[in-house]
Design a protein that fits this description.
Layout (H helix, E strand, L loop, with lengths): L11 H8 L2 E8 L4 E7 L2 H16 L5 H7 L2 E2 L5 E2 L1 H9 L5 H9 L14 H6 L3 H11 L15 H20 L53 H15 L5 H6 L12
Antiparallel strand pairs: 1-2, 3-4
Helix pairs in contact: 1-2, 2-8
Length: about 260
């Protein structure tokens, strides 16, 4: 976070987080959402930082100089550099077997097999600050945001603290000429086309050809998020099967006299 409309100063959120005893101010990007998290030691600090945090998420400055530093630029030695670019360089050599599996599970033009961090080629040749601004303007909207709060908090105090952001959002929306907003990830997925189990081999470059990955995936009929207890049940089952040395899959495939794998996850 390099500042927002109401707080156009670098590191202001980090400094405020320290004052509010917030030990976690972070963000992570998944296939179908980006999650911004914050954790404070008490209610008063949380209520103080929440509207400022929301202002940074919905109304960031997105300056050109910040894009050059954070995403991509050419340094004094003529080398590609940038925080995001360097992170993607570290993952470039990762195996593409998982992406190949996702392409079969989600055929067609599905975002579920997209590389969320971007590709090095695109970052060098086609990614610009204007594209970032357009993406943010299109998708970083109140209609496309879910605010999840855990812990004991007074609702009236909470509503009062977010009122300023709510008014700001409504004022900006009243000035927009954009047509009605359609939330992404709402279209039905294309069927896989597989009536039975589908097994395939995906080759990728490696210095050691004696090792590989065995990946298993499947599609459910409905959106699992519509049934949270079932989602929790699946997650608990996977932990039971894989989480420790005495888990069933770990015992059968790794901790045996004739192991078939070095790890299970």
């Amino acid at each position: 976070f390099q500042g927002s409309e109401d707080y156009p100063f670098k590191q202001v959120l980090k400094l405020l987080a320290n004052r509010c005893l917030a030990k976690h101010v972070n963000a992570r990007t998944s296939r179908d959402h980006t999650c911004y998290t914050i954790s404070t030691a008490g209610i008063s600090g949380f209520l103080q930082i929440l509207p400022i945090y929301l202002d940074h998420i919905l109304f960031p400055t997105l300056r050109t100089e910040d894009f050059l530093t954070e995403v991509h630029h050419i340094n004094g030695k003529g080398q590609d550099a940038g925080v995001v670019y360097s992170e993607m360089q570290g993952s470039k050599s990762a195996t593409s077997s998982l992406e190949a599996l996702k392409k079969r599970l989600y055929p067609g033009n599905s975002g579920y097999y997209a590389q969320t961090g971007g590709t090095l080629e695109n970052m060098r040749n086609s990614t610009t600050i204007e594209k970032v601004r357009q993406y943010h303007r299109k998708l970083y909207r109140a209609e496309n945001l879910v605010l999840t709060i855990t812990g004991r908090i007074d609702e009236l105090q909470l509503f009062e603290k977010v009122r300023s952001i709510e008014k700001k959002v409504m004022k900006k929306q009243s000035l927009e000429t954009q047509s009605s907003f359609e939330r992404p990830w709402k279209k039905k997925l294309q069927p896989t086309g597989f009536e039975e189990n589908h097994v395939f081999v995906h080759e990728f470059p490696s210095d050691d050809e004696s090792k590989g990955h065995v990946l298993i995936g499947w599609r459910l009929k409905d959106h699992i998020t519509k049934d949270i207890p079932i989602l929790e049940a699946f997650q608990l089952m996977m932990q039971y099967l894989t989480v420790s040395k005495v888990s069933p899959l770990e015992t059968e495939f790794v901790e045996s006299s004739d192991p078939l794998a070095s790890s299970v996850y």
